[in-house]
Structures are given as structure tokens and as C-alpha cells.
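User: I'm writing a short methods note and want a consistent example. For RNA polymerase, sigma-24 subunit, ECF subfamily protein, I'll paste the sequence; you return only the C-alpha cells, no commentary, since I'll be parsing the reply automatically.
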Amino acid sequence: MSSSEFSVQIHEMAGILQAFAYKLTKSSEDSKDLYQETAFRALTNKDKFRPGTNLKAWLFTIMRNIFINNYRKKMKANTIFDATDNQYYLNTGGQTVSNGAESGILMQELQKMIASLDDSIRIPFMMHYYGYKYQEIADQLQLPLGTVKSRIFFARKELKALIHNRYGDTLGRTK
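Assistant:
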């Protein structure tokens, strides 16, 4: 298929593509930009389209992927959020004093939770925590590699459950 035939087929689907772009963006200006970017990428990557396949589906996939990528870029750009009333806190430049009491208490409680684990999962977990490789742990404890990996997994799982039971979602867990 020649480039001119290909561009004519894309032009014939302009109305459907623009409607889909508007459905994604909910903005007429953004939908025009999305359609234009889709048409450009389709023409640029014409060689990747296999004749005899569904051109409409191929164009919709390109458009959806462009939209998703742009959305992700926007979300990454908007991650910084300052909830302070003014910029005073950002511009003070003075020394801050940290209070380690709360984190110290949390660490003590975490160490107690780790100590409460069964030795069969606590020992491989702590060895892994201290930097031993899985194979080194398996050799030292004379266990199969898969057993070591599963015990470390179960230790993490049990610790996670203990932490969740103790604190719930109050630690500001992110998804």
C-alpha cells in the first residue's frame, strides 16, 4: 500500500478518530491535538501496519496509548504539592530539629515483631536483611534455595500482617 493510499484511509476515519479522542480527553482542543499526534505517528510508522488487518483498531490503539502516556506525564509533573498556607516554611533556611522518639519507638516495636517470628523464618529473613545472598543463606543453613526464598517471603508476609494488625492504615501506606 502506498503512502498516499494509507493517508487517504486515515483521512476517511478522521471523524471516528476525533470522536474517540474527544471521548478520552473531554476537551475539544486536547482531542484535536490527540488526533493530530495519532495521525502523525500512524503515518510515521506506516511500515509497522500489516495490510489486511484492522486499520481502525490499530489507529485506536495508537491513540489510546498516546493518551495514556500523556496522562502519566501530567500526573508525574503534578506530584509536588505544597499544602502550607504560605511559602514561609519553604524559605526559612533555618535549622530544623528532628525528634527521633517516635521513630525510635516504631523501631523498637518492629524489632519485637521480628523477634516474635518463628526461628525457621526469622533467621533466613534477618540474614537476608544483613545482606546475605539467597544462595549464601541456603549454604549456611543447609537448606534448598527455594526453601530459603519461601521462608523469607513468609517472614515478610507475616511481618506485614503484624504491622497491619498493630497500626492499620495509619502509617500512610501508598498504593
